[in-house]
Design a protein that fits this description.
Strand content: under 5%
Number of strands: 0
Number of domains: 2
Shape: globular
Structural class: mainly alpha
Distance between the termini: 44 Å
Radius of gyration: 20 Å
C-alpha cells in the first residue's frame, strides 16, 4: 500500500496504460465485459435507491441540454449503428473460422440491432427528442458492446460441436425469439396508441401490456437472457446483466408514472415481470 501511495500520479497512469497494453485482445474483451457487469449493477442501484430516471422519452424535459435535444429518429439511428457495424467488421476480418454455433450467436445479436438501427428509428411517430449527452452515452455503450460481443463471439468464442443441438442452447434461442417478438410487438402497440392528430399519453393495451407496464422492456430483457443462455460467455452475460440493470428500473419508473397519471390504470398490472414485479 505504501508503494501505491508514494507512486506519482503520472507514473500510476503510465502503469495502468502499460498493464492494459500488455493484455491480449481476448483478456481485454473479458475485462471490458466484467466492467460492464459492475457498471450495470451500480447504475441499477443508483436508479432504484435515488429514484433517478433516465431523462429521455417522456422524461426528456427534465434533462440537461433539453433545449439541444436531437430528433428521436436521428438519435436512435446514430447511437445504435455501432452495434451493427462493429460485429460486421469482425465478421469481415475474422469470419473464416465461423461455424454454425458462432453464426447463430452472430445472427441473434445482429438481428436485434438490424431492427433497432434500420427499422425501429424510421417507424417512430412523434418520438420525443433525445438530449445530446444521452445520445453520446448511447454511442459509447454501443461501441463498447458491439466490440465485445462481435469480436469475442466471432474471433475467440469456442463452442462444443453439438452446441446448437443442446437443450439449453435451444432454450436460449427460443427465449431470445420470444423476447424479440414481444419487444417488436410492444413497440408497435406503443406507436399506434394515438390516432393521427392526437397528442398526449394513453394506456397501452394488448399483448404483454395486459400483464406489465414495460412490455417492450420485458421483451428486450428476455432477448438478452436467451442470448446469454445460448452463448454461455462472459460478454453475453454482461450484456444481459447490463440490459436488465438499466431498463428494469426504467420499467419501474414507467409503472409508477402510469399509476400517477391515470386513475383507471389497471391495478393488476406489474412493472416488468408478470405476477412478480
Amino acid at each position: 500500500m505504501s508503494d501505491f501511495i508514494s507512486m506519482s500520479f503520472p507514473k500510476f497512469i503510465e502503469d495502468i496504460y502499460n498493464y492494459i497494453m500488455g493484455l491480449s485482445e481476448e483478456q481485454l474483451i473479458l475485462y471490458l465485459a466484467y466492467s460492464m457487469i459492475v457498471s450495470g449493477i451500480i447504475t441499477c442501484a443508483y436508479m432504484i435507491l435515488f429514484k433517478q430516471r433516465a431523462t429521455y422519452g417522456r422524461y426528456g424535459n427534465d434533462a440537461f441540454f433539453a433545449n439541444l435535444a436531437i430528433p428521436a429518429r436521428i438519435s436512435w439511428f446514430v447511437q445504435e449503428c455501432p452495434s451493427l457495424i462493429i460485429p460486421a467488421i469482425a465478421l469481415a476480418y475474422y469470419g473464416d473460422n465461423m461455424n454454425l454455433s458462432k453464426v447463430i450467436a452472430f445472427l441473434m445479436f445482429v438481428g436485434h440491432y438490424w431492427n433497432r438501427t434500420l427499422c425501429y428509428p424510421f417507424l417512430i411517430t412523434g418520438g420525443k427528442p433525445t438530449p445530446p449527452h444521452l445520445t453520446f452515452m448511447g454511442i459509447v455503450f454501443c461501441v463498447w458492446n458491439g466490440y465485445i460481443q462481435g469480436f469475442y463471439h466471432v474471433k475467440y468464442a469456442t463452442f462444443e460441436s453439438d452446441h446448437p443441438r443442446q437443450l439449453i442452447s435451444q432454450l436460449g434461442i427460443a427465449l431470445f425469439l420470444c423476447g424479440m417478438f414481444i419487444n417488436i410487438h410492444s413497440d408497435s402497440i406503443l406507436r399506434n396508441l394515438r390516432k393521427p392528430g392526437e397528442t398526449g399519453y394513453k394506456i397501452p393495451r394488448g399483448g404483454m401490456f395486459e400483464f406489465v407496464s414495460g412490455a417492450n422492456f420485458l421483451g428486450e430483457i428476455l432477448e438478452w437472457v436467451g442470448y446469454a443462455i445460448y452463448c454461455r460467455s462472459v460478454p453475453a452475460l454482461a450484456f444481459a446483466v447490463f440490459t436488465a440493470s438499466n431498463i428494469g428500473p426504467r420499467a419501474l419508473h414507467h409503472h409508477e408514472w402510469y399509476k400517477t397519471k391515470f386513475e383507471d390504470y389497471p391495478k393488476d398490472r406489474h412493472a416488468v415481470i408478470p405476477l412478480l414485479l
